[in-house]
Amino acid sequence: MHNPIINLKGEPPMTAAAPSKVTELLNRLQRNHPLVKFLRFQWQDYSGVLRGRVVPLDTAMAQIAEGKPLKATGLALTCSVDNHLIPGTPTDAQFWLVPDWSTLHPNIGSGSAQVLCSLDYTLPGHEMTQALCPRHTLSRVLRQAQERWGLSFLVGFEVEFLILKPNPTTGQMERCSRGWGLFSISGLRDPCYEHIELCVLQLKARGVDIQAIHTEGVRGQYEFALGPKPPMQAVDQLLLVHSYLKDTFAQHGCTVTMAPKPVAGDSLANGQHTHLSLQPASPHLEESFLAGMLKRLPSLCSFCLPQDVSYERLKPFVAGADTACWGTECRLVPIRKIEPSRWEIRCIDAMANMYSTLAAIIGAGLMGLAGQEPLVWPDLGDPANADADRGEPLPKKLDEALDLLDADAGDLAAVIGRRIIDQYVGTKRFEVSSLSKLDPEEVRELFNELF
C-alpha cells in the first residue's frame, strides 16, 4: 500500500505554497510513485461536474519552478452538465488554476496524480477576480464567520451509492449490486462488496476518514460515513471518495453512481446527507444560525437539489420533509438536530457542487446571526408539537427553487456575492432548457455516468 503524498487529516490548504516547496512535493511524488507521469489539475463546475486539465508531470514541474501561471480554460465554469456553452460566455476570458497541493494524490490504476484547484478569472481590461469560483467563495464565507463571530465549522458527509452494469442485450444500465439492504449482513455477501472494501483500504491509505460502511436502501445500495473535517477539507475528501469509487469499479466494467434516482421506476434513491456543526458549540448563536438556514431553505434548494430529478428523491418522505422545518432526532424533516449546535441537512444530493452549497448554507446561517433572527419554527421532534405549523413549502422542481434564489439573492449575496449567484442561476436555467430537449432516459444515463 502506497503512503499518501499529503495526509488529509486537517492540514491547511496549500494554495500559496512557494514554488520550491511545491517542487519538493512533486519530487517526493516521483520517488514514491515512479509510474506517475501526468498531473490532473481538477476543479468542480457549477453543475457539480468534475473537470480537469492533464499536464505531463515534468512539464508541470518546469512551469511551477519558473513561476509561470497555470491555465485552466476560458470555459472552466461556463459549460452546462450536457456540455453546451452557456450563452453570453466571453470568448476572450481566462480562468487560472490555483492548486491546493494538500489535495495531491495518485490515482488508481493509471500513471497520473490529481490535485484540486480553485479558479481565478481574468477578462481583458478588468482586474483578476475570485468571485466566480465556488471554492474561493466557500473560503470567503468561512473567513467571514471566523472574523466576525469567531466561528469555524465541522462537516461530515454520508455517501450513498449504487453499482450498475450494462445489460448485455439492451445496453441499458441495471443494478449490479443486489445485496439485501438496511444494515443487513446478507448484503455484504454480494460479490461487489469485496471491491468496496478494497476501495476503502485505498482511501484510508490516502488519509480519508471513513468511519463506517453499511448496506442501505432495500436492495443493492451502500453507504459510507465520512468523519468530520473543516468544510474545505470535507468537500475535498468527498470528491476523492467519489473518484476512487468510480475508478475502482470502472476497472471491473461497472459504474458507481451517487445520482439521486439511478433507475427509472425504481424507488431506490441516493442522498448525500450533510452534517454541520458550529465550532465551538455556541448556545447563544445556535438558534439564530438555525433560523437563518430555515428562513432561506426554499431558495437554498437551488444549490442543494440542483436538477429536477433531485426533487423526485424527496417524494417518498412524509411528515414535513417537503417544508422548511426541523426536529430534534427527527429523520422526517429537512434539518435534523442531533445535539447542540450540530445538524444533519437531509435535502442534499451528490449532484450539488458542495463548495457553493456549503457557502450558501453557512452564509444563510450567518445572515441569521447578523439579523439576530428568532427561531420561530417549532421543534417537530417534540411530540407536543405534533400538530404545529410545518413552515413554508419547499420547491417541487428546480425552476421554482431558482425563482426563489433569484428573488432572495440580494439577501444571500451580502455573504456569498452577487456575481456567483447570477452566474449560477443563469447556468442552471440554461441547463433546465437544454435537458428538457433530451429523452429522460438519456438524461438519467448521463447523470449516472457523471455523478
Automatic annotation (TrEMBL):
SUPFAM superfamilies: Glutamine synthetase, N-terminal domain (SSF54368), Glutamine synthetase/guanido kinase (SSF55931). GO terms for biological process: glutamine biosynthetic process. Pfam families: Gln-synt_C (PF00120). One of its GO terms (molecular function) is glutamine synthetase activity. Residues 134-451 form the GS catalytic domain. InterPro entries: Gln_synt_N_sf, Gln_synth/guanido_kin_cat_dom, Gln_synth_cat_dom. Keywords: Ligase. Belongs to the glutamine synthetase family. This is Glutamine synthetase.
